[in-house]
Amino acid sequence: MRALWLGLLALALAGCAHLPSVHWPWTHRSPPPPEAVHELVITSPQGGSPVDLPQYWKRNTLVVDLQGVSGTGGVVLHPKTGTTWPVRLAFRVMPGAIGELEVRAAQRLVLPIAAGGAKPVDLELAPGVYTSKTDEIRVNWGPTASL
């Protein structure tokens, strides 16, 4: 009988290795990664060749992910043919990778980016920076006070 109990105990302990993958009701699951969308046409300012930058919806705000950019550069945004601009637009940047983000549309806006931080930051454009009649939005980035 003792051998039977020891065998069952060993079997139960071997099964405990799989417990971290089980979702317990008192723990919180991490949120799923955002689903990529393709709402805007993004091109380079020189030559108009396509640029692949991730785009995500965060509630009713379209977020263009610029986490992978550094140094100096820029892109031009256009709505897809037959569509309009999203009501809200934001840019996700990693602090320290770039110093400023310049947006040119109906208005010019320069957004400074903090040098320190471990998490990406979403910079939402203020109302009026672009309108429904805006043809394109030019976005440039670089070190602080270079734009």
Q: Which spans of ≥5 residues are poorly predicted at pLDDT below 50?
A: none
* Total domain modules: 1
Proportion in helices? under 10%
Assign the structural class, choosing from mainly alpha, mainly beta, alpha/beta, alpha+beta, or little secondary structure. Answer: mainly beta
Alpha-carbon Rg, integer:
24 Å
How big a fraction of the residues is strand?
Answer: 25-35%
Number of helices: 1
Cα separation of the termini: 80 Å
CATH topology, by name, is Immunoglobulin-like
Number of DSSP-assigned strands: 10
Q: Whole-number average pLDDT?
A: 88
Largest sheet: 5 strands, mixed
CATH level 1 class label: Mainly Beta
Order of H and E elements: HEEEEEEEEEE
Cross-sheet strand order for the largest sheet: 1-3-4-6-9
- Report the principal-axis shape: elongated
> What's the architecture in CATH terms?
Sandwich
Textual characterization of the structure:
By secondary structure, the chain is mainly β. The chain has a single domain (36-142), classed as Immunoglobulin-like. Helix content is 10%, strand content 33%. It contains one helix and ten strands; from the N terminus they run αββββββββββ. The protein has one helix at 2-15; strands at 36-37, 40-43, 55-58, 61-65, 73-79, 88-93, 100-104, 108-112, 121-124, 137-142. A hairpin with a 2-residue loop joins strand 3 (55-58) and strand 4 (61-65).
